[in-house]
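Progress note, sequence design subtask.
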């Protein structure tokens, strides 16, 4: 819980993302990113967004390099380096996304699966997850499992 203490700040990449919308963040993540101002802590942000548990969303934004928590303990090594992710975790996450996309999204699934397979980092997969999740929710068959799959994916990538 200590990682949620203190105010988060946008990185340069976060400021660019607010302006450019290049990562295609989900509307919830985008709202959170916009609200991060260096003064509000996780509790205050949660009140503004009407939720009490922002740990996963803050973790996603931090893993993507869009925000930082200056009060969090410093990592050894490069200060801007995200913790290394076991390649097998990334492969498992890619498989989850690709298999569900191919099963439920038809032609869109093939295109999306190619992009997912070429993703080389946690940040890239988290970025693609917004588009994948929206497509799954909009699909005839995939909408029933979209939220559960997204939760599983986030746990894999954020807590890895």
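Output:
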């Amino acid at each position: 819980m200590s990682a949620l203490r203190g105010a988060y700040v946008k990185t340069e990449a976060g400021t660019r993302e607010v302006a450019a919308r290049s990562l295609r963040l989900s509307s919830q993540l985008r709202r959170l990113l916009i609200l991060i101002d260096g003064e509000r802590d996780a509790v205050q942000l949660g009140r503004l967004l009407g939720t009490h548990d922002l740990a996963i969303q803050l973790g996603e934004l931090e893993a993507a390099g869009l925000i930082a928590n200056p009060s969090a303990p410093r990592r050894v090594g490069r200060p801007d380096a995200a913790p290394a992710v076991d390649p097998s975790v990334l492969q498992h996450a890619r498989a989850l996304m690709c298999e569900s996309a191919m099963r439920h999204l038809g032609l869109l699934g093939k295109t999306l699966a190619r992009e997912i397979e070429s993703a080389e980092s946690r940040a890239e997969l988290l970025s693609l997850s917004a588009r994948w999740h929206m497509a799954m929710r909009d699909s005839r068959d995939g909408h029933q499992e979209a939220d559960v799959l997204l939760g599983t994916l986030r746990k894999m990538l954020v807590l890895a």
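Confidence is low (pLDDT under 50) at residues 76-81. Work on this subtask will continue into the next period as scheduled.
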